[in-house]
Design goal:
two-stranded antiparallel ribbon, 245 residues, 12-stranded antiparallel barrel, mainly beta, globular
């Protein structure tokens, strides 16, 4: 963990010297967000799901190269919390074609250590704490198409937490025309996830349909296990409606 943090910190400090330097001091902070309702909550690492309907609340506050991006998620049944994350992100490199993002966050995942006692469901939730770092090198091929690598390391800070490494090869096809009034975005990924010595290979893709000037989108995520010794479903999918503001 210390080596990972050292590498991330060095990149955070050193990369601006090699990047283009637009004057960001005069930029005003911008705020955006999204509210998503889905029939099956799927986490950033698609291997992990809530397995039931969920609501996700995202906010992003940006100024220059920095952003603060909290996400709060809840099960719709009983409004029980699922996970809370609080991203701090920085664009270490930002050129016309290439960008490198660095991010950290503390997070809390709420788990039920005893789903049932004598066949009776329990209501107790335990907060499991993590500290997470990410690297996001991305190369833009055109205005709509980009490719990149996503690396995430999650370090467990409390009892019941695991240490996780996530590496994804990803591409994005953004807002491709779909008929005369709609657009389609597709984000396919091939990824490896390793959890305390166990690992798995998966393929996933997100499909999002929207309409210009309309603040709603409809999306689906499909995740397929290729080979894994991590307990997980062979096929995971969901449908979601998102309101952007």
């Amino acid at each position: 963990m210390k080596k990972t943090l050292l590498v991330l910190t060095c990149i955070l400090i050193a990369c601006p010297a090699f990047s283009e330097r637009p004057d960001s001091t005069r930029q005003q902070p911008s705020v955006s967000g999204a509210v998503t309702v889905t029939n099956n909550g799927i986490a950033l690492i698609p291997t992990f799901t809530l397995g039931k309907p969920a609501a996700l609340f995202d906010v992003a506050v940006r100024k220059g190269r920095f952003s603060f991006e909290p996400q709060l998620t809840f099960a719709l049944e009983g409004a029980k919390p699922w996970y809370f994350v609080f991203w701090l992100r920085y664009k270490a490199i930002q050129t016309r074609r290439f960008s490198m993002g660095v991010g950290f966050h503390p997070s809390v995942v709420f788990v039920n250590p005893a789903p049932a006692i004598n066949g009776i469901p329990t209501e107790n939730l335990t907060a499991v704490r993590y500290f997470v770092g990410e690297l996001t090198p991305t190369y833009r091929l055109s205005g709509r198409v980009s490719v990149g690598v996503y690396y995430l390391h999650a370090y467990g800070l409390s009892g019941g937490a695991t240490n996780t490494n996530f590496v994804s090869l990803t591409s994005t096809f953004a807002k491709m025309p779909l008929g005369s009034s709609l657009h389609l975005s597709v984000t396919p990924q091939l990824y490896l996830v390793a959890i305390d010595g166990r690992k798995g290979y998966y393929a996933t893709s997100a499909f999002t349909v929207g309409k210009p000037k309309l603040p709603f989108t409809i999306s689906t995520v499909v995740n397929k296990k290729i080979q894994s010794d991590i307990p997980s479903d062979d096929l995971i999918w969901n449908m979601s409606v998102t309101y952007l503001y």
